[in-house]
Structure formats: structure tokens, C-alpha cells
Amino acid sequence: MRRDRPGDDARRLTLLHENLAPELLRYFLRRTSEPADAADLLADAFLVAWRRMRHLPADDHEAKLWMYGVASRVHSNWLRGRHRAARLAGPLRAQLEQAAAGPVDDDLLDVRRAVAALPSDQRELIMLIYWDGLPVPDAALALGIPLTTARGRVHRAKQALRGALAERDDDDLLDDAPAGTALAPANHERF
User: Quick check: is 187 in a domain?
Assistant: First the structure.
């Protein structure tokens, strides 16, 4: 075990990086499909080396082999993480694909466009209430605004949405939306 000063460690790691980084980058490039992943893995390997500098062998050849061991473990950890993420995300991905493959609803697209055109403070409030099912008091609390401000914004947003959707004779789309549509209120009191 080495006991150098912090400045010596920094210089040693800098030299190690200058000498080994291109070689280790090629190591990672051969084991990944994306150059950005290889660059991230290289950075991770040198971060591990910095954290474990006291274990870095003094001999340059042994230090190189030690770094290859670090690179191997970093790559193995990365692979395990990717497999774990893919396994956990698989069911969600399948649900999203099924939802996306559903029939295109022109009414829903019109509503989404109208909501997207609202000012951001009104849009977020409408989405929290009608899409996420929060009552107005809860949405106001989530956004950190007074309840009276929230009620005023909801009123103005509904007026703007009615106007935007009036061309389609959907004036009461906001108030009488059937369950399951984009702007159907939750089954609890909204105001």
C-alpha cells in the first residue's frame, strides 16, 4: 500500500490517464455498441482509479494491469445495470407499445392540441386536474399557488378550451366528458 501526498496521486493519475486512456477507450469500444457508452465507461474507470489510488501499484506495468482489472469490473457492472434496467422496463415498454398502438382518436388529438396551446400555468393545472385526476385544492397545493388563483386559472383555461374546441361543436366536452376521455374529471369533487 502506497502513502503518497495528494498532489503526487493527482500527478500519478494524470500520467496514467495520458498513457492508458486511448488503450482503455479501445477496450470499451470493442465491448459496447455506442461510442458514448465507451467514453462514459472510461470516465467511470478513472473515477474508480482516483477513489482507490492507494491501491494503485507503483510499477507502471502492474498499474496498467490493475487498470485493466478496474475496466473489466466497470464494464461488468455496466452490463448488469443494463440487463436489470431492461428486465424492469420490459413490462412497462410492452404496456406503452400497446397504448400507442391503439386507434387514433381525432377528438383526443384536438383536445391535446388545445391544451398544449394554453399558457403554461393554466396548462399544468388543467393536466393535473383532468389528466392526473387531482382535485383543484390538491393541484393548487402541488403547484404552490393559492386555491383562489387555481380556481381562476381553471376557469380561464376552460373558457379558452371551449373557444378552441367550439368549431367542432364540443362546447361541453370539458364538463360532460365521458369517463376515460382526455378531459374526464376524476370521480371525486374537483372544486
Answer: no
How many of the other CB atoms lie within 10 Å of CB of 164? 17
85: domain range? 6-100
pTM, entire model? 0.48
- The verdict on 18 and 65 lying in the same domain is yes
| pLDDT exceeds 60 at position 171 | no
| Contact call for residues 54 and 8 (beta carbons, < 8 A) | no
Those residues with Cβ within 8 angstroms of residue 37's Cβ, 6 or more apart along the chain or in another chain: 28, 78
Count, residues in the chain? 191
Identify whether residues 24 and 82 lie together within a single domain.
yes
Please report the DSSP string for 13-73 in residue order: HHHHHHHHHHHHHHHHHTT-S-HHHHHHHHHHHHHHHHHTGGGS-SSHHHHHHHHHHHHHH
Do the domain assignments include residue 184? no
